[in-house]
């Protein structure tokens, strides 16, 4: 375990391994994404209350889960950066931010499109919607702060602090629908109780959730490899890579 | 772990705890503003603001939806299973509006204790199932747990 951790912490090793994984991840993502989408849009039954409109759940909910999951990854990376000063953790942290921001944006937009026909409004300042919007601003803050500091090791530590402090928002997002009266309904799947969704509708939702997870790792590896080349452009392993 | 790393980890834990407590107190203080709606019980108890727009949430009581006058004006009773408030609204209702449905209305109280809404939003629950399953559940007498607007 520790050996594995140290190996992936070395830039040339990460670069090579991630490069080998990329096509596999891309293929797996395609399989899960297409089967989840077809199952969700074609085979899953319509909802008793919302009819066909509920199908946007298959993009909205996995995107919202990913928006929180990626932020937690960034916060854990932030702790590793501050305590162990590990360069790879800095790079994973900053490479995750644009992906997480995209998922947050996707969750907000699909939620808004879903809200209009069902609730009767695109947007309300209810606790769930507002805290998710704050999450988007946190992501943008991380990206902006990293870009504003030229010395990248320094920038990595600065965004680590922001990522850790911002993690306080994650439980607020999750519990917002329980702590306060909100227009957004309570959790369907992420609760200790049995999921309150019929299994034929739950299956495509889980397929899409797995697809989005794989997409995250795939996109992350692509971005980390690019970031590594740029940061280590003066190092010997990059030089050797391009000589051969 | 080296002592320096231990110290840094401890500092981070302290920072996170401090921020969490700070945010917790701030949210506690702002509790009334974050509450998206009041329940009919809150209104009857006089907790809702007067002469100011606020939202009320509850379930539309079966058999109380009336359309007096021009047909665009709707009047219905809203309940949280404890108290009931009459809501009047002129305008277009969301698709999900029906008797027994949880809704949220934005507006003010008039002199008679009725709620005059300028906006009605439908609140749906977290249950998803095919219509046939819903029918089967109804038949077996095990109806869906009714939506609780005050959660």
Commentary on this structure:
The complex is a heterodimer of chains A (244) and B (151). Chain A is mainly alpha-helical. Chain A has one domain (20-44, 55-243). Chain A contains 9 helices and no strands. Chain A has helices at 2-8, 11-43, 57-84, 87-118, 127-148, 152-166, 169-179, 199-231, 236-243. In chain A, helix 3 (57-84) packs across helix 6 (152-166), helix 3 runs parallel beside helix 8 (199-231) and helix 4 (87-118) runs antiparallel to helix 5. By secondary structure, chain B is of the alpha+beta class. Chain B folds into 2 domains: 3-33; 36-139, Beta Barrel (OB fold (Dihydrolipoamide Acetyltransferase, E2P)). The chains are: A mainly alpha (244), B alpha+beta (151).
Q: Class by helix and strand content of chain A?
A: mainly alpha
CATH class of the largest domain in chain B: Mainly Beta
Shape descriptor of chain A reads globular
Shape by Cα distribution of chain B: flat
Task: List low-confidence stretches of chain A.
Answer: none
Reported CATH architecture of the largest domain in chain B: Beta Barrel
**What do we call the CATH homologous superfamily of the largest domain in chain B?**
Nucleic acid-binding proteins
Widest sheet: strand ordering of chain B: 1-2-3-5-4
Largest sheet of chain B: 5 strands, mixed, barrel
């Amino acid at each position: 375990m520790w050996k594995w951790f140290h190996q992936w912490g070395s830039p040339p090793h990460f670069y090579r391994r991630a490069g080998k994984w990329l096509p596999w991840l891309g293929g797996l993502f395609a399989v899960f994404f297409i089967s989840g989408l077809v199952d969700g849009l074609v085979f899953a039954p319509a909802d008793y209350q919302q009819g066909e409109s509920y199908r946007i759940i298959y993009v909205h909910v996995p995107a919202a889960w990913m928006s929180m999951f990626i932020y937690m990854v960034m916060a854990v990376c932030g702790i590793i950066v501050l305590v162990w000063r590990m360069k790879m953790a800095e790079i994973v942290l900053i490479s995750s931010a644009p992906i997480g921001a995209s998922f947050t944006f996707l969750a907000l937009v699909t939620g808004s499109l879903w809200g209009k026909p069902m609730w009767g409004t695109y947007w309300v300042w209810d606790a769930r919607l507002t805290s998710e919007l704050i999450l988007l601003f946190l992501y943008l803050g991380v990206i902006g702060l990293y870009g504003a500091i030229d010395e990248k090791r320094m920038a990595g530590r600065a965004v680590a602090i922001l990522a850790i402090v911002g993690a306080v928002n994650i439980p607020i997002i999750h519990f917002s629908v329980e702590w306060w009266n909100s227009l957004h309904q309570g959790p369907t799947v992420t609760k200790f109780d049995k999921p309150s969704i019929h299994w034929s509708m739950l299956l495509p939702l889980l397929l899409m959730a797995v697809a989005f997870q794989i997409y995250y790792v795939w996109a992350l590896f692509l971005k980390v490899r690019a970031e590594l080349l740029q940061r280590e452009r003066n190092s010997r392993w990059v030089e050797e890579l391009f000589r051969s | 772990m080296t002592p320096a790393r231990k110290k840094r980890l401890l500092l981070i834990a302290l920072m996170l705890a401090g921020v969490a407590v700070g945010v917790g107190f701030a949210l506690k203080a702002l509790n009334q503003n974050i509450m998206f709606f009041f329940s009919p019980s809150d209104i009857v108890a006089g907790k809702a603001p007067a002469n100011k727009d606020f939202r009320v949430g509850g379930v539309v009581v079966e058999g109380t939806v009336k359309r007096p006058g021009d047909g665009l004006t709707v009047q219905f009773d809203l309940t949280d299973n404890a108290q009931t408030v009459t809501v009047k609204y002129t305008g277009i209702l969301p698709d999900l509006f029906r008797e027994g449905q949880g809704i949220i209305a934005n507006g003010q109280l008039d002199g008679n204790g009725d709620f005059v809404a300028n906006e009605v939003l439908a609140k749906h629950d977290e249950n998803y199932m095919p219509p046939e399953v819903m029918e089967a559940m109804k038949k077996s007498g095990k109806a869906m747990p009714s939506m609780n607007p005050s959660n």
